[in-house]
Structures are given as C-alpha cells and as structure tokens.
Amino acid sequence: MTTPDNPRDLALSVDDSRSSSPDVPAESARSRGRVRAFLDLVTIEHSVFALPFAFLSALSAMQVSGGRVRWIDLLLITVAMVGARTFAMAANRILDRRIDARNPRTAGRELVTGAVSVRTAWTGAAVALVVFLAAAALLNPLCLVLAPLAVVPLVVYPYGKRFTNWPHAILAIAQAVGPVGAWLAVTGTLDGSGPAWVLGAAVGLWIGGFDLIYACQDSEIDREIGVHSVPARYGRRFALHVSTVAHVVTFGLFVWFGALVGFGWLWWVGLALTAVAFAYQHLVVSPTDLSKVNRAFFTANGFVGIALFVFALLDLVIRLDLRP
C-alpha cells in the first residue's frame, strides 16, 4: 500500500473533495478527514493481526466449557480488542512524537507532519479506552476488574525505550494479555485458565521476538538520539539471535497449548505451516540486510496468525455447537 509523501496533503485533499459536494456540509467533511487521518495514525487495519489469537483463545474456552459458541461474547471481545489496540497505538504515537520526528523512517507519521493534532489523538485515545472498558464491563465482572491492569503495559511500553534496553519485553507482556483476557471473557473465572496463559506467553514471545527484528532498522539512529533497545545496545546480530530463540520457544508453547486444549490433526497441520513461516521470517532478514523486514512482518506474521486460527477453527467447528 502506498501513502502520500505528506499525510497532511491526504487529509486536506479528502476535506476539499468532500466539501465541494452540495450534499455534505463542509464541517462534516473536515470531521471525516480528521477521523480518517486518526485511523491512519493507529493503523486500524492492523487490528486484524491481534484478533486471531483472541478468537482462538475464546473459542477454545467455549469448547472446554460447554461446546457452544456465544456470538455476543465474540462480538464484545472484538470490540474490546480493537479498543485496547487503538488506545495503545494512539498513546504510543503521542508519547513518541518527538522521537519519531528525529528518525527519518518515522518522520512522516501523522503527528509529526501535523495531519493529526495532539488534541485529536488524545481524544481518539480516550474514546478507544472508554470503548475497551465498556466492552469489558459488558462481558463479566472479572474482566471489568482486571481491565485497568491490562492497560498498564500499554501505557508503560512507549516509556520503556527511555529507561530499559529491553522495551520489547514490555510489548510482549502487553500482547500476552489478549488471549488471557479472551479466555476470561468467556469463563468469567481464573480457574482452569492454564491454556490461556500458555497461549498468551506464546503470542507475547512471538510479537516481542518480531519487535527485536523490527527494531534493527533503527539501531543506528536510536544510538544517536538516545533511544534504548536491544539492537541499539547489543547490536543487530545479538538481537536477531535472541529473536530466533524467542520464536523457537513460541513454537514450543503453541505445541503445548494444542495438547492442553486437545486439538486434532488440523491444528498440527496449521502448526507445521507456522514453522515454515517462522523459518522464512528469519531467513530473509540478516544483520547486514534489513531490506525485507516489512515483508517478514506483513507476510510471515500475518500468515502465522491467520494459518493457526483457520486450522484451529476448522478443528473447533467439528466439535462446537454453532447455533446462535
């Protein structure tokens, strides 16, 4: 997907084109332009990467606790996940806007160019947080009580790169919350949630391991401007080795989760394809060649989430009662 050199131009062009229509008031057109720019800021379309494992955890909990799909719960989990991720991305962009301005790779982001104002970003973040908390409240009391704890790593992560060389670990914790929260959303209790913690650890290590790869792109500029990360402190080669170890452990945790839940042969087929995707991700990136980092993200990571979810879903469909 290509983007214009100046996101402000995109927002203004949207406003101008809509304002010229006699059917759409100018203020409404400007509001829609701001909303679109905010959605670009938080890369709303990337929410799809976080949802498969939340759904996988929720459906597994439904299979274990009665074998019937609860569609309302799945809808509320979707709303909660999108709300939490939107809040996290907005907060991250706001808190990092001055760092982003000093990095050529991120200098075109909306808060840096002015396509989105800080006030608009904070407003969007606040709305997303309210949506997340409301969805948690509608799910069950335990989710509401634990929801503020889930927000903590989302806020701490942007600050992590200011005080630790391992901010990737904070991101891993933030990502691990999703599958655990989805399981609790279905069961309403911590009892019997062992599989969710295993899946959460797997997802956290998966994303944290990739973040190590992604951070290699900025290792030199990070050292110059004082941003902390494993690649900036210990070098790209070390970071890629740690990422490999993290993904090997991730794969082992996926195996463990499948055994705990009792998945059939379809899950193991999906897991085999996942192993290929992990291998590809690490083969196309090296300390001296980071040109394919984005391909590793969009291709390999997208494939991992979708493949595992699709094959697990096929296995679960055989056993779940899908009646509303």
Biggest sheet character: none
Query: In what range is the share of β-strand residues?
Result: under 5%
Helix content: over 70%
Measured distance between first and last alpha carbons: 37 Å
Query: Kindly state the mean pLDDT as a whole number?
Result: 84
Order of helices and strands: HHHHHHHHHHHHHHH
Structural class by sheet pairing and helices: mainly alpha
Number of beta strands: 0
- Rg result: 21 Å
The total count of helices amounts to 15
Q: What is the 3D form?
A: globular
- Stretches where pLDDT falls below 50 for ≥5 residues? 1-24
> What oligomeric state do the depicted chains represent?
single chain
Which key features would you list for this structure?
globular, 78% helix, single chain, disordered N terminus, 324 residues, mainly alpha
